[in-house]
Amino acid sequence: MESKSNTFSSIPILDYSLLSTPDGHAKFVEQLRHALIHVGFLYLSHPPVSQEDMNALIEYTPRLFELPQEEKNKIRMANSPHFFGYSRFGAELTKGKTDQREQFDFGTPYENQWKPGEPEYMKLWGPPQWPSDELIPGFKETYLRYLSQVEQLSYEFIALIAEAFEISEDALSPFFNGGTKPNPGLMQHRSKIVKYPARKEGESDQGVGPHFDGGFLTFLLQASDHPGLQVQNLAGEWIDAPPIPGTFVVNLGKALETVTQGLARATSHRVLSPVPGSTPRYSIPFFQNIAQGVCIGDLVLDFKPEILKLKDSRGQVGATDSVNYTEYGQYPTGYVNLIGRVKSHPDVAEKHYPNMFKQFFPQGLPAQGSAY
Known about the structure:
Elements lengths: L12 E3 L6 H17 L2 E5 L5 H15 L3 H6 L10 E3 L5 E2 L2 E2 L3 E6 L31 H26 L25 E7 L9 E6 L5 E6 L6 E4 L5 E3 L6 E6 L1 H6 L9 E4 L8 E7 L17 H4 L24 H12 L1 H7 L1 H7 L12
Parallel strand pairs: 1-2
Antiparallel strand pairs: 2-12, 3-6, 4-5, 6-7, 7-14, 8-13, 9-12, 9-14, 10-11, 10-13
Helix pairs in contact: 1-4, 2-4, 7-8, 8-9
C-alpha cells in the first residue's frame, strides 16, 4: 500500500463485516487507524445499508435529471435559504472556477429554528426541496430511507474512530449537539445527487475542482461505473479512486483533522469529467455535519502521547491544490459552512444573504453564478 516515500499509491479497502467477530473487529480498527492517519480516504465494503435501497437510488438517479427543465427549475436552489434544491449545469464554483456538473442538494429531515437576532448561519439547516412524487414516484421515500441508514452508519463510524484513537465516544458527542445517534431535530446532514456530463472536445475537465470536505465524514456512493474521482497523496500525485460496486468511498473532512490535532488526515480530492463521447457520471455523496455553534478550535481533543506520535510516521504533507477552509478554528462551524456556500452559490447568497454576497462578490453576480 505504501511506497518508499511513505505516501499512498492506492486507496485501502476495509470490510465492515469484520466487525461481527472480536478478532475481525480488532483487525478492522487497526486498518481504520492506518487509513485515518496515512490516507484520509478508504473504501468501505459490505456496509450496513440495504443494497436494495442503494440499487434503487442508483436507478432513480438518471430519471431525476431527465425531469422536464421547468420541473427542475421549480425546486432550484435559489428558492432556498438552506441551499437545498436544483443547480443547473455550471452554476457552482470551486476556487472561483466553474464546475462542470448538474446537481440536486438534499438533506435529512429538519425544521428550521432560526429566529431574528440569531446568527445568520442558523438559517442553513431547514427542510429540503423535493421533486413532485407524481413525476418520480417513490424517489423521496427511497432516498429518505437511504439517508437514515447512512446517518446511522456515520455515527457508528464516529464510534470506531474514537476506538481507533483510544478516546471515549463521549469526547465526540459535543460535535453532534450532545448526541452520537440519529435524533430527528437534533442534527441535519446533507447529501447531493450529481451528474457529470461527458465533456466536449476542448472543454475544461473540471467536474469539481480540488477541494477538502469541511465536516467530519463523507460517504460517497459512486452511482455509475465511470472513473473520475482522484485523491491527492502526500507527494502531490493524483491517485484514482475508481468505482467498486457495493462500496462507499469514505473520506475525512477538515473539521475532523483539526479536532484530532492532525491525526486524522483530510485529503485533497477532485473529480474529472467523463471523456468526450462517454455517458454521464453520477455520484451520491452524504456529508456528515457537526453542530453549527461549535468553534472547533475550542474543542481540540486530547490523546495519549503514543497515539499522537503515530502521525510522525506519516511525514510532511506536500503542497496540495486545495485552498479552502482556512477559516476553521476561528469561527463557529455554521459560519464557516455559510462562507463556503456563499462562495459556491452566489445566486442563492444574493437572494438570501445579501450582506455576505456583497462582501464576497463586490462586483456583483459572476457570469457562472447567474440565475436561470
